[in-house]
From TrEMBL:
<keyword id="KW-0874">Quinone</keyword>
<dbReference type="Pfam" id="PF01512">
    <property type="entry name" value="Complex1_51K"/>
</dbReference>
<comment type="similarity">
    <text>Belongs to the complex I 51 kDa subunit family.</text>
</comment>
<comment type="subunit">
    <text>Composed of 13 different subunits. Subunits NuoCD, E, F, and G constitute the peripheral sector of the complex.</text>
</comment>
<dbReference type="GO" id="GO:0016491">
    <property type="term" value="F:oxidoreductase activity"/>
</dbReference>
<dbReference type="GO" id="GO:0010181">
    <property type="term" value="F:FMN binding"/>
</dbReference>
<dbReference type="GO" id="GO:0048038">
    <property type="term" value="F:quinone binding"/>
</dbReference>
<keyword id="KW-0411">Iron-sulfur</keyword>
<feature type="domain" description="NADH-ubiquinone oxidoreductase 51kDa subunit iron-sulphur binding">
    <location>
        <begin position="336"/>
        <end position="381"/>
    </location>
</feature>
<dbReference type="GO" id="GO:0051539">
    <property type="term" value="F:4 iron, 4 sulfur cluster binding"/>
</dbReference>
<keyword id="KW-0004">4Fe-4S</keyword>
<keyword id="KW-0288">FMN</keyword>
<keyword id="KW-0479">Metal-binding</keyword>
<keyword id="KW-0285">Flavoprotein</keyword>
<keyword id="KW-0560">Oxidoreductase</keyword>
<dbReference type="InterPro" id="IPR011538">
    <property type="entry name" value="Nuo51_FMN-bd"/>
</dbReference>
<comment type="function">
    <text>NDH-1 shuttles electrons from NADH, via FMN and iron-sulfur (Fe-S) centers, to quinones in the respiratory chain. Couples the redox reaction to proton translocation (for every two electrons transferred, four hydrogen ions are translocated across the cytoplasmic membrane), and thus conserves the redox energy in a proton gradient.</text>
</comment>
Amino acid sequence: MRQIKRTPDMHPLTWRMRKDQQPVFLKEYTNTNGYSSAEQTLKSMTSEQVVELVKESGLRGRGGAGFPTGLKWSLMPKDASRKTRYLLCNADEMEPGTYKDRLLMEQMPHQLIEGMLISAYALKASRAYIFLRGEYIEAAVNLRRAILEAQEVGLLGNDIFGTNFNLDIVVHTGAGRYICGEETALMNSLEGRRANPRSKPPFPSSIGLWGKPTCINNVETLSNIPAICANGTKWYKGISKSMDTGTKMMGFSGQVKNPGVWELPFGVTAREILDEYAGGMKSGLRFKAWQPGGASTEFLTNQHLDIPMEFASISKVGSRLGTALAIAVDHTISMVSLVSNIEAFFSRESCGWCTPCREGLPWSLKILRSLEYHQGQVGDLETLLDLCRNLGPGRTFCAHAPGAVAPLQSAMKYFREEFEAGIQCSNLNSHSYVIHGIQSNSSDV
């Protein structure tokens, strides 16, 4: 297994991390040039120049969708009279199989705060929130301590670096709902309302939190900002092996020898991560399938392992890069049971706002449970595929249901025989079925 020697020029997110995995707090962070990027940026650049710099860097959102960060920032109103505006850090990391933001928050809290400080300056926001997954207790403790440390030395609060820029950051822990990862549901929850997604338009950049212009970015996205401002866009583009710029927190979980997460350049292949970093499959187990970036991404097979881990390449083969924390499936796992477990999670986490998601996901789960126990009926597979179509993109209020059925549809594509095996053999003799459009009974055949 390859050991990573983290360096500032190749590992901007993780080079300061301690070998004992303890958090890096203010003294240690500032001793390694922490907050120097923020000071330089606030003193020498305008907000508009920071937005253009991030746009030029090619930084894309690290939460899963990959939307260009600089472009997202540029959508905020230019009208200076609209003074109240917000920056939200989406730290509601509830995607099964994903734990990269947890690592960054627990071990590098000041890096996130510095990234938020620069980002808020670029967005002209004086108030920022970290919407944190409620189960991340250690991250909450470390972030709150880091915020207090920053406040005590004037890195947060009023007149930061003598620039007349003010910023307060508040950690808000959620109540444990996956749907809060959707940015408008996050805003509703933060306002004390039920976490249902909002209709768009209007978009958060114009009417967001409490009706004010709002920008929402992911933890990993914001953590990239200090290094980009300190080292420039040419450097940031140069550390990637891909058209996607910079590095990405990537990893493998499942029955591998060394599950974990590593900061790697875009463009490395999944096979390289699996074999050289995760150590391959555990002894006696064979690789069967994988999901590139969490439980809501489509399954791929061994033939796709040599594809570069980048947004476009993964999309071309029918999946999504997502969070880039892949999940390995070994040969002992039933795909029906695995997908049933995934659909049980997504069905439970549906907010219930729209009918297709509220009714369709439990229906798909019911069918999968019957297939899992070999009690399926003739026509179940066709019903599942029909549900996948009707819960797909553009058919529901938000992206929850399309993400939920993506693994189901792909599993049926590559492992259909396992789903067919769940149909009772006796059904072929004792139930009515259709042949060439004519209804027949088993006794007549």
